[in-house]
Design goal:
Elements (H helix, E strand, L loop, with lengths): L1 H33 L21 H9 L2 H32 L5 H13 L2 H15 L5 H25 L4 H8 L4 H30 L2 H6 L8 H9 L7 H36 L1
């Protein structure tokens, strides 16, 4: 029995590890390229390991370009989008799972259907709305756009998570005299925390990596996030600054990697909970 189990683990490892290496290889190559000297970037045949490690590309990126401004914009955008989406999604999901009113299920279905709409369909109405309310070409306009595509999926995830939670504790608190708001903060929110954190992480990653809306709705360096700012700064019709591009890609990946390392437990528990009734 033990031999069969060990053999199964070996076969699974034999299949899984090559797949993991294929997925991780571009990231490893990106990191190694970012610390290679300029003279080694286009060597033929290419070398995997750098003959000399240098951080000159990072120094150039941080000191001589607008990269830090783009990173600041990305952090502000992703954080504001996540906060707005989570506040609205938590309240909306609580309403859809705990209150009974006509059209409740239809509303939930319509919310998911809006997520299925392609971004290109929404970008023109969003742009016209930004111009009309006077916030076009600003960080605030991108926050509105990012909320529009992240909120439906976040609401659906949290609705599934709350629907899988038993209502007994909340009902007992209401019977003991707790108000609906008190039961929400003391009972529902602590139980929903893994789902909220995983949804917040998903929203942050989606906002951090968003490119299309940022490309169409913003054309000034003061409001550009890192995704479009780096491309406009380092990629032109005649030249691509590969060394700086790799350094920027590593720097842009680090915040997500750090956040994921600290919150991966919440992420797995959250998506496991939403998968019950998703």
């Amino acid at each position: 029995m033990r031999e069969d189990s060990a053999r199964s683990r070996f076969l699974i490892s034999l299949i899984v590890w090559p797949i993991i290496l294929i997925i991780v290889f571009p990231f490893i190559w990106m990191v190694l390229t970012s610390i290679k000297p300029q003279t080694e970037l286009f060597r033929i045949p290419p070398s995997f390991w750098p003959t000399r490690i240098t951080f000159e590309h990072y120094a150039t990126l941080f000191e001589q370009t607008s990269f830090l401004k783009y990173m600041r914009n990305s952090i502000i955008l992703s954080t504001m989008t996540t906060v707005v989406v989570i506040v609205i999604a938590v309240l909306g999901a609580y309403s859809l799972t705990r209150f009974i009113y006509p059209g409740r299920e239809r509303i939930a279905t319509l919310v998911l259907l809006t997520y299925l709409l392609p971004s290109v369909v929404l970008v023109l109405p969003l742009y016209l709305m930004m111009v009309r309310i006077g916030v076009a070409n600003s960080l605030f306009s991108l926050v509105i756009a990012y909320v529009s595509f992240a909120l439906p999926y976040a609401l659906w995830l949290l609705r599934s998570f709350m629907a899988s939670m038993p209502e007994d504790l909340e009902s007992a608190a209401l019977v003991d005299g707790a108000s609906r708001l008190g039961a929400f903060f003391d009972i529902v929110l602590p139980q929903t925390l893994p789902g909220i954190v995983s949804t917040a992480l998903f929203t942050f990653i989606a906002a951090w990596n968003e490119y299309f809306y940022a490309l169409i709705l913003v054309n000034t360096d003061e409001a550009r996030p890192a995704t479009t700012g780096v491309i406009s700064m380092l990629v032109t019709s005649f030249n691509i600054e590969w060394s700086l591009l790799m350094a920027a890609s590593v720097a842009m990946s680090l915040p997500l990697i750090i956040i994921f390392m600290f919150l991966q437990g919440f992420l797995l528990r959250g998506f496991a909970g939403t998968g019950v009734k998703g």
